[in-house]
Structure formats: C-alpha cells, structure tokens
C-alpha cells in the first residue's frame, strides 16, 4: 500500500517558530514522499474552553501558515476537521469501542485536567477516540507525532486491531513516526520547557507573524549563561538554553549542531545571537508577509479549504460506510 500520512494541528493560538520547525517545515520538506492529508483540528481545540472569535481568526491564521510555508495544496489534501462530518461520526463509534481503562491510561488527560477532573469537559477524556478516527478514516500508514502524542497513536493501533478482530479487516493499523530533530524547540527563556503558543510571556517564543525588529530583539534577550559559545557538543551538557539556540540555527540553516559549534567556536554570545537573529528574519519574515496576504483574502482560503474538504470526504466516507455496514447499521437510502 502507498505510504499515507495523516496529521493535524489545533488552532488554539498564534503559530510559533517551534510549530514551524517541529511540524510544518518537516511536512513541507517531505511533502512529496507520500500521500499526505493535513488538517486543522478544530474539534480537538474545543476540548478546553476557547474564545469563539479568537478561534475563528486563529483557524485562518493556521491555514495561512501552512500555505505560506510552502505546503503544496494541489498535491496534498488540506482541510478543516469540522468540514468533514465523518470525523465526528467515527469518533463517536470508536468512543463506544474504547474501554474506560484504555482512556484512563492516557497521561495527557491527567496532565491537562490536573485536580479539576470532575469539572473538566468530558471531551478532554474521550478525545483520543476522535484522534483515532482522524487517522483510521483515511487508512493512514504513518502518523508523525511528538513524544507526547505517541501514546495516542498506540491507542489508535489498539482500537484498530480490536475492531478488526470483532468485525473483520476494516482498518489499516498505522505506525507512529517520531521526529528526531526539530520536534521540540524550547522556550527562549527556559531551555527545559517547550516553546509554547500559550505561554503568558511573548518573549519566550518567535511568532511567525513577528516583525524583523521583534525577532532580533527577542533573540538578543534570549537566555544563555555566563560562559561563551561551546567548542564541542560535550560542552552543551547542562546548558539547555544554549543548546536550543544552536539547534534553531542548525535547523534553519540546514547544517548540523556540530557545524554550528565549529562556526562559532569559543566566541562570545553576541556575534552568534546577531547571526541567529538575521537568519530567523531571513527565513521567517517572508512567511509572515505571505500569511498576511492570504489572511486578507478569506474567500480564496475558503475556496482552497472546500477543495480539500471534498478530497478528504471522498476518502473518509467509504471507510465510515464500511464501518457502519459491518456493525449492523442500516444504510441511509439514497
């Protein structure tokens, strides 16, 4: 079977350099190596409260970010999760097939709900079943995920195997693909924490819509330490902020961290930060400029999304129909 990849991202806040290097750039660089379906996971976003107007705008921003970053939407299928109703219908079916014990093992629910498990919305508990539906609808063979989502792909595999054993060979069992480098770009203020769209301080991240001046200022103010640039990789131990900046430079310039270290061996941080700021401006501000152009043409974005919706539905609906058939549902008369 042809390699088919399915991946989604939630429209919960402005896109950052971490999102770009950890996900979008990876997809863009490998977009012709498989059949790809990329979607905006807006149903997943509402597992926690969202401001309606803000989510609406952030959805368009996310769509623009994908396209402005170079995603070929003529080759790839790109759509909004909520535009393909089969996601929710199969999500409910798989929720009914998900043992409580399997869902209780999901660590993300415990992490996000914390002490509020009795008052948090039930969707935060059951959304792994919807995530499984997102994947299984399209017979995905591979799912690119961060370490924090690998457990959910394992649940997807378990649900697919269990369903196939009960009802016949319906679902393809997918494999998780963990990005080795670029999967976790860290905060500019704390190298032990992931660069987050939801961090209260804007100085912790580079946003794709940041101006050149803002980017340069944030990099100049980025936390390092009292030393100088390392002379070897071994010197990066216990220097998470320095390691993070070196990895960002390497990922944007297309060279290894070792080559970055060789280039700035033993220098003060200022020359390196100046070079890094210029590099980020060179690579990111054109994306931000194109995003602004796209977001000012909502009609065109909606046209492109409608095209992606139709392509996705053509793949999803037969899978859903087969699931309902083997489970005993009466087909909807045409």
In CATH, the homologous superfamily of the largest domain goes by the name HUPs
Any idea how many domains? Answer: 2
Decide which structural class fits the backbone.
mainly alpha
User: Which fold does the CATH topology of the largest domain refer to?
Assistant: Rossmann fold
Unreliable residue runs: none
Beta-strand percentage? 5-15%
Largest β sheet strand count, sense and barrel closure: 3 strands, parallel
Q: What does this entry look like structurally?
A:
There is one protein chain. This protein is mainly α and 334 residues long. The chain has 2 domains: 4-184 and 298-327, Rossmann fold, CATH 3.40.50; 209-293, Tyrosyl-Transfer RNA Synthetase (Orthogonal Bundle), CATH 1.10.240.10. The protein has 13 helices and 5 strands. α8 (150-167) links the parallel β4 and β5 (175-178). It is globular and about 70 Å long. The model has no long low-confidence stretch (mean pLDDT 92).
Write the layout of secondary structure elements.
Blueprint: E1 4-9, H1 17-29, E2 35-40, H2 42-45, H3 52-68, E3 77-80, H4 86-96, H5 100-104, H6 107-113, H7 123-136, E4 142-145, H8 150-167, E5 175-178, H9 212-221, H10 240-253, H11 257-263, H12 269-295, H13 298-327
Parallel strand pairs: 1-2, 2-3, 4-5
Helix pairs in contact: 3-12, 4-7, 4-13, 7-8, 9-12, 10-11, 10-12
